[in-house]
Amino acid sequence: MIGHKTIATLAALAAGFAFAVGGAAAQAPKRGGSLTYAIGAETPHYDCHGSDTYATLQFASPFYSTLLQFDLTKYPAVKGDLAKSWTVAKDLMTYTFVLHDNVKFHDGSALTSADVKASYDRLRNPPAGVVSTRKATFGDIGSIETPDPTTVVFKMKSVNAAMIEHFASPWNCIYPAAVLAKDPNAPKTSIMGSGPFVFVEHVKGSHVAGRRNPNYFRQGLPHMDGFKGVFMLQAAAMLNSLQGGQVLAEFRGISPAERDRLVQAMGDKLRIEESSWTLNLMIVFNTEKKPFDDVRVRRALNMAIDRWGGSQGLARISTLRAVGGVVRPGSPFATPEAELAKLPGFGKDIKAAREEAKKLLREAGVPNLSLTLHNRNLAQPYTPAGVFITDQWRQIGVTVDHKQYDTAPYLAGMSSGNFDVAIDFSNLFMDEPSLGLAKYVSFDRAPENRSRIIDRDLDKYFDLQVSELDPKKRSEYIRAFEKRLFEQSYSVPLLWWHRIVPTHKVVMGWRMSPSHNLGQDLAEVWLNQ
Amino acid sequence: MLRYAINRLLLMVPTLLGVAVLVFFMLRVVTGDVVEVKLRGDGGAVSQETIDMERKRLGLDKPLSAQFADWMVGVVTLDLGKSMWTDRPVVEEIGTRLELSMQVAIMATIVAVLIAIPLGAIAAVAQDSWIDRVVRIITIAGLAVPAFWLGMLIMIGLLAAFNWLPPITFTPLYVDPWANLSQLVWPAMAVGYRYAAVVARMVRSSLIEVMNEDYIRTARAKGVFERLILTRHALRNALLPAITVIGLEFAFLIGGLVVTEQVFNLNGIGKLFVQSVSRNDFTLIQGMVMLIAAIYVLVNLAVDLLYAVLDPRIRYT
After folding, report:
1. A88 touches chain B (CB under 8 A)
2. Is the pLDDT reported for residue A462 higher than 60?
3. Handedness of CA B115, B121, B126, B127 (dihedral sign)
4. DSSP string spanning B71-130?
5. pLDDT above 60 for A15
6. Residue A96: Cβ within 10 Å count
7. A200 CB near a chain B CB, below 8 Å?
């Protein structure tokens, strides 16, 4: 429990933060210096297109440019990165981008529309042997034209209301067409970008380093001479290093307990920024395995979880906090609490819900169900979430064997369907519903749906909301989607995360956002020392 | 002696061959597929065609006997192949970490020897006195306290006392000795304390036993000074079992410091070992097992040769 003293300290720090931010706005950025920061995991490869982990972005973002990017001063608005300007046809079927004409890759070659086309072709239609985890996202693109070296035209097959935000996705790194032509898999093992920093070294198991790109196309940027991202897999080592000043920031997020420890030890040297997080944990039932092909079993397990009570306890010890549906609570299309509480698994009378759950299990013929819970071996927030769920299900007579795995085998196990029930995550970079809902549509359309279900009703509501431009109607389709999903309980959100980012106060210009995937290119970061 | 050393070196060949056969075939029995973990471990959808292509590229579609033959040809020519996970040569992957792990092991051994031999000898000479009891407390504490926990205490102590922590990235000794030592001296101390406790206990019990031998009694009867008896006659013999322990502990330290490496954020062999196992990176695991087996064999040989130096009665032919 956080004491009054801690709360007072936090309040003082929050005030200090507001002051610091205000101060930063008034202060002119200083040139020079090198930022050393902690990265909580080491990327297995360098390819943004084929990755879904922040470890790749926090490693690679400083070296690459994207067509557009999110403007974190006005999130979720987007701004140009490589694109100087852009126009969108009224029918949303054509997107035309005009590129800056002075962009060079780090080897000195010019970046042109051909490079953008080659990169997006690789994203939407990867050649044999290349993995693109965004193939489905860009499936709506019909063709890409390059009328001149600085113009790219995307012609759509169908309307996607969120296409402009998808163009701002941090995962869409632009690679040189020549490199891709020579070896389509080259971006996995080598880096050639046009971003604010030039790749210096990757010492495996230790760190990645970059130096200032003197030919960066955005005038006056980056401010720093270089950076070093140190892989720190152990939270205790990372916290010690933050406290000792060996690293000046950890941009993913820490737990409330870790925050309190740092605040107590470092006082006003530390800046803490907090935000809700476009990231949730979810429970996924493998519907290809018995008895999870039975809706009664899935629904019983969903209903037995006391999300409202659990959120209060878990918020004190983990990065989990908010109860929400498939869209982040507080964002424009989120389900209001009163409506959410009427859906299975989200009711506030947990005693009644558990009685109902026991009844459903009896009816399904598995009153003493035993299952294996497939989970990731990261302390935050997977371990507390796994322990919490194990206890919740124990209360309706279910025996859980909680197994935790390293990230790669954890993801591989889920992707290949080698699990009973899993704790999955939905890692979004924006609140646009079509991005969040995509994970729940039928398996033949969204292979990232680990429940492996085919449900055309869900697909229908998804398609309706994607092309619907009236926000009210779109909300109705999203509600219908959510109702169907929770009633069937193929995969259901557990809790949404809360992001807490610690930085030393000398680190300026970095912008907090609800996604740890954004703002990692470090172009505008500067050191006040 | 030279002939003995050569014979022992030749005996390494069947030993390492046995290790190679065991590790290669046992890894193939373990469940899990490196290609699935590698390609699906990003969470994305990967077609079976892509998985098959990667399997073919890595040579995993060949019969086991052919895979083994390929690998053995590589081992003989000191080419351990490429990591199935990173595509970098296994020798490079291990080389990046071996320098650090080897240095920590050497420094911990120095710390252990410097502490353990005087401490064990003093405790044996002053058997059952208060000095012996104090030494016993120190050594039992060393055995009871895990090295990683002591490491955490060291880090917290450094932070609290000096608001300072050792560097978090490795600098080779020849590049910057100060940066190198200021990073590695702390894990060497944390590990060296436990190591010293094991060796000190061994020195004490061995020395007590030797001090009761007839030849020591004879030396005393001849009026030899007690200090001379201890250093020239007793300690040399008492060190024989301690040297065996020192050798085994040293070999263990090369790959066995998984948690301690994490506490100090060290990029060592232990961490690499755990990562490669969790990723089913067969070639890297095989390379590391071969390396550690070779280190064990060489350290054992060095220990045996040291026996002859310390005890002139031992002659190898």
Report:
1. no
2. yes
3. positive
4. HHHHHHTT---B-TTT-SBHHHHHHHHHHHHHHHHHHHHHHHHHHHHHHHHHHHHTTTSH
5. no
6. 17
7. no
Residue with the two structure tokens 């001379």: B228
Chosen from B40, B280, B284 to mutate, greatest number of chain A CBs within 10 A: B40
Yes or no: say if A236 and B172 are a contact pair by the CB < 8 Å rule. Answer: no
**Residue A383 CB contacts under 8 Å (≥ 6 apart), including other chains:** A375, A377, A404
Facing residue for B41 by CB, picked from A132, A232, A407: A407
Is-same-fold flag (A63-194; A276-498)? no
Question: What are A202's two structure tokens?
Answer: 């990757």
Q: Burial level of B76, CB count in 10 A (0-12/13-18/19+)?
A: exposed
B134 Cβ contact partners less than 8 Å away, ≥ 6 residues apart: none
Any chain A CB within 8 A of the CB of B88? Answer: yes
pLDDT digits 0-9 by tens, A212-262: 999 999 999 999 999 999 999 888 889 999 999 999 999 999 999 999 999
Identify the helix (H) or strand (E) that includes residue A434: helix A433-437
In CATH terms, the fold of domain A276-498 is Dipeptide-binding Protein; domain 3 (3.10.105)
- Tens digits of residue pLDDT in A412-427: 889 889 899 999 999 8
Q: What is the tens place of the pLDDT at every residue in A102-139? A: 999 999 999 999 999 999 999 999 998 888 888 878 88
Architecture of domain B91-310: Orthogonal Bundle (1.10)
Tell me the two tokens of residue B141: 């504490």
* Structure tokens that stand for A437 in this block: 């809902």
What is the number of other CB atoms lying within 10 angstroms of the CB of residue A12?
13
Residues A476/A477/A480/A486 CA torsion (nearest 10 deg): -120
pLDDT, position A24: 45
pTM for this structure? 0.85
**Angle, in degrees to the nearest 10, between helices B90-125 and B235-255:** 150
Domain boundary assignment for chain A: 63-194, 276-498
Is residue A426 a contact partner of residue A279, using CB atoms and an 8 Å limit? yes
What top-level class would CATH report for the domain A63-194?
alpha beta
What's the pLDDT at A233? 84
More confident residue, A272 or B263: A272
B161 touching chain A per CB within 8 A: no
Q: Which residues of B78-106 are buried (b: 16+ CB within 10 A; e: fewer)?
A: eebbbbbbbeebbbebbebbbbbbbbbbe
Does the interface predicted TM-score (ipTM) exceed 0.90? no
Burial class (CB in 10 A: 0-12, 13-18, 19+), A184: middle
At how many degrees (to 10) do helices A235-244 and B147-162 cross? Answer: 20
Question: Among residues 278-307 of chain B, which lie with CB inside 8 Å of chain A?
Answer: 278-280
Q: Is A152 helix (H, G, I), strand (E, B) or coil?
A: strand
pLDDT at A62 over 50: yes
pLDDT in tens, A296-323: 999 999 999 999 999 999 999 999 999 9
Backbone region of residue A79 per phi and psi (left: phi > 0; alpha: psi in -120 to 50; beta: other values)? beta
Distance CA A426, CA A438 (A): 10
